[in-house]
Amino acid sequence: MRVLVTGGAGFLGRHVVERLRARGDEVVVPRSSAFDLTRREEADRCLEASLPELVIHAAARVGGIGANRKSPGTFFRDNALMGLHVIEASRLAGVRKLVCLGTICAYPKFTPVPFREDDLWNGFPEETNAPYGVAKKALLVMLQAYRQEFGFDGIYLLPVNLYGPWDNFDVESSHVIPALIRKFLEAKASNATEVVLWGDGSPTREFLYVEDAAEAIVRASDAYSGDAPVNLGSGEEISIADLAVLVRESIGYRGGIRWDTSMPNGQPRRRLDTSRAVEAFGWRASTPLGEGLDRTIAWYRSRMAC
Hints:
Oligomer: single chain
Helix content: 40-55%
CATH superfamily of the domain at 2-163 and 207-235 and 270-287: NAD(P)-binding Rossmann-like Domain
Radius of gyration: 19 Å
Structural class: alpha/beta
Largest sheet: 6 strands, parallel
Shape: globular
Number of helices: 10
């Protein structure tokens, strides 16, 4: 079928596009230089030009704690506007189905672990990424309201922290795994005696290899049409301290780790209940964290050599 993937040139989007094309779909990837989806008329023009049957909305302004703290208004504005405009333009264009990608940052700061979709509204998100999380969560409400009023088939997926090839490795704006990989590789190359990391290492996170996430998104687009949000995760929980040691060992760096406790930790714990994804469309993650890290490190090393 003909599929429009917003953000299709980005980290997650390119893996979704590859999977769709591999099965024979005709995929349209709008470039931000051609279509500014934060503008209503540009979103309308994008849908009118592509005429898709399916829309996968993966476009987002994303970043780690530092980027979210620096630009909270921009993160809220751009993510809210892109989602609002793409959903409305899709409805007006007669799109058969829309898959909207939410964020784990939408969950309340002190959500009981494992995070269940029914707990999504039981509190406010962690402060450093709340503007981003609330903006994305508002799109779930929009899709549920559009289903009720217009019969529009929009589904909402909540991927946990992603990592893998084509991630953002910019130290200023990256998420934790690419930041760790780059810092340890650079420390090894310069023979640095230690690497300084934010926080105290105590928070826990769950990570999902990006190719597993792409598989889940495509499968959900085929097999799920419910109004309830669905978690996408691996089921593995690891502390940031243990993750740092795992990345250091995979890279072969022998220096120390010093924690800068003046910097924020972020949300205390994250691990998802992924039973709804299993029940709704038969999906489970298949890539263990250690294997995924090795693949990601190998990919980044190959890019550094270019």
